[in-house]
Structure formats: C-alpha cells, structure tokens
Amino acid sequence: MTKPLTSLVLSTLLLSTAASAELVGEHFTAELDIPYGKGLVTVDGNITQRDLLMDVVKPAEPRADQNPVVVMTFGGNFIRGGRNDVYSVEGAQTTTMRDYCKLFAKEGYTCVAIDYRLSLEEPVPSNIGYSDELLVEDELRMKALHDRHNMLRQGKGLEPLPDGSPIVRNTIISAAEDLYRAVEYLQANSDKYSIDPERIAVGGFSAGAMTSFNVAYGMNAPVKAVLANSGRSLGFNVEAAAKDRDTTPPALLQMGQYDLEPLVTSVRYVLPSYEKLGIDVDLAWVPGFGHFYPAGAMALGTDLARSPIIERMVAFLDTHL
To answer: For this UniProt entry, which residues form the secretion signal (predicted)?
Structure first.
C-alpha cells in the first residue's frame, strides 16, 4: 500500500514546474530546476508522470565555445537525497552535487546536477536505453542492498519492504533511465547550453556512482569518462553490453578506507572483469573515511600519489574529456 508520506512527497514533485531560478557566483552561473524529461511514478496506486529536473552550472571562463560537460548524480541508496543535499555521518560530511558542479565550473567545465526517481515514488521503468536481456536480476535484488534499503526506510518511520518486492529493483533501473535521458537531453540541446555533445562525462556518489557505471557500461550511453565515488555497476550485464560497444570510457573510482564492506567486497569482485572488458579503472582510496567524505578529502592513488578528491577528478577529466 502506498504510504501517506509518498503522496506528500509526490504532490510537491508533480506540481507544474515554475520558471527556473538562477544562482550567480564568482566562477559560475547556475540555472536551477530545468526539466530534462519525465518519468513514470506511482501515486496512490495510480501510475502518472513527473518532471525530472536538473541544475546547469556554467563556468565564468569556459574551456571552449562548445564546452565539455560533467553530469553528477547524488547518492542515498536510491531512497533519499537530492542535488543539493548534504550527508553528515559520524563527523564526515559529503559535498553536494550542486557544490561539486561549482567546483568543476571553477576549473572551466560546465556541470549538470540531476535528480532522479526514488523508491518512495515507486517508479515504473520504461525500457529506455536498454532491453530486459541486459538486466541481472540477482544483482537487482541483492540482499545486502535490500537490507540497507529497509534500514533506511525504518529510519524514516516506514515499514520495511517485504521479500520479493520489486520496488528497489525498479528504482535502480529507473535511476539509470533518468541519467540516460539527461545525457540525451544535453546532446539534443548542446547549442542552447554551449556544450560539446561529444564530450560528456557522468559521475556521482554511492547510488549516483552506481547509476553512472550502469549508464556508461550497461547502457552504452555516449559518454567519454566516468567519475565514481563509492560505487560500481549494479544490475546491468556489462559484459553483454560490451559486445555492442566500439570504445570504452575510462573510470575514476574512489572509495573510503572504511567504506561499506559489502560494497568493498563487490568492487574487488568486479574489478578483474572490468579489466577483461577493457574498462580502464583508476582506483584511489580516501584514508580515514568510511562511505561519506567531502570533495576536499585527501585521496591516495595506486601510485601512492596524494591529492584531494576534487583535484584528482579534475585531473582525470583534463586527461580523458
């Protein structure tokens, strides 16, 4: 049964979109709440559409007339979060996707922070950008992910999802659809935003990092690089998708020293398969942190070089985008 909280959340999301707001800073101009598509969700048992929104942060000094662009996706275990939401856990505070965009804009990159459908909305997938044959049901229904999702639900005062519920599965797929839509929207509107449709990177934190991996390697979206903070591909058959891919974008994967153990274990498991598929993964650790860490935290690469997370991300983009 749909909870009253779900209806309350969606009654706000489904209001007609007002004119987008604007932020101006020393190094950027940001246009907020731009609709980039629509997604199916469930309200009181009925399937309807809601607007999908993004913030576009333009640098004061772009790198090119047609500028490279980074698309950032927030985390929250597919149940919580937003483009401008901060997580603060045991003294560790994350950087919002909007603030990441401001940091990228300072370096001359256009950056986009998107929202996507969350599990409280009970999203309905639409097979946009993939076929069912590319889905891995065992991963989409992974017990560790389901258990953590229910832990967060209980923290919100909601009943846990029963075994076999398709809600988490559908949300993971829908999030990938939404990011895929965002990439399509940017390509179709490249002139409007003065961006290069051939120079798009995707990235994010946790669920956002997973979604970025899914879109780049499971759906073969036309992207040039992946920035993943504490995430990996999940629920899409990356090996099968690779058969239809001419080129493979590289990835920068950063994780906390004390990150979530199921995530660390699963990353160790998939890294060899990525290598076999020709996915070049640059791996770095964030010493002293768990799953949550800010953009300015120091990261340690496999070559023992030390640099802040954001500097490592910018250097990666400079090389590959």
So the answer is: 1-21
Q: What share of the chain is helix, strand, coil (3-state, %, to 5)?
A: 35, 25, 40
Going by C-beta distance under 8 Å and a sequence separation of 6 or more, which residues neighbour residue 2? Answer: 42, 43, 44, 45, 122
Q: What is the pLDDT of residue 163?
A: 87
pLDDT at 304: 84
C-beta separation of 236 from 176 below 8 A = yes
The two tokens of residue 70 are 């980074």
What pTM did the predictor assign? 0.92
Phi, psi for 156 (deg, rounded to 5): -95, 5
Within 8 A by CB and 6+ apart from 63, the residues are 108, 109
Question: Long-range pairs for 95-100 at CB < 8 Å and ≥24 separation?
Answer: 95/294, 95/295, 95/296, 95/310, 97/72, 97/73, 97/204, 97/205, 97/208, 98/30, 98/55, 98/57, 99/295, 100/72, 100/295, 100/310
User: Could you give phi then psi for residue 284, rounded to 5 degrees?
Assistant: -140, 150
C-alpha to C-alpha distance for 225 and 190, rounded to whole angstroms: 18
- Percentage above 70 pLDDT, the chain: 94
Helix residue spans in the chain (DSSP H)? 4-13, 97-106, 137-140, 143-155, 167-188, 190-193, 207-213, 238-242, 261-276, 309-320
> Mean pLDDT over all residues of the chain?
92
What pLDDT was estimated at residue 5? Answer: 38
- Residue 119 CA, distance from chain mean position: 15
Q: Which CATH superfamily is domain 19-36+52-120+166-320 in?
A: Alpha/Beta hydrolase fold, catalytic domain (3.40.50.1820)
Distance CA 122, CA 200 (A): 29
pLDDT beyond 70 at 15: no
**In contact, 5 and 158? CB cutoff 8 Å:** yes
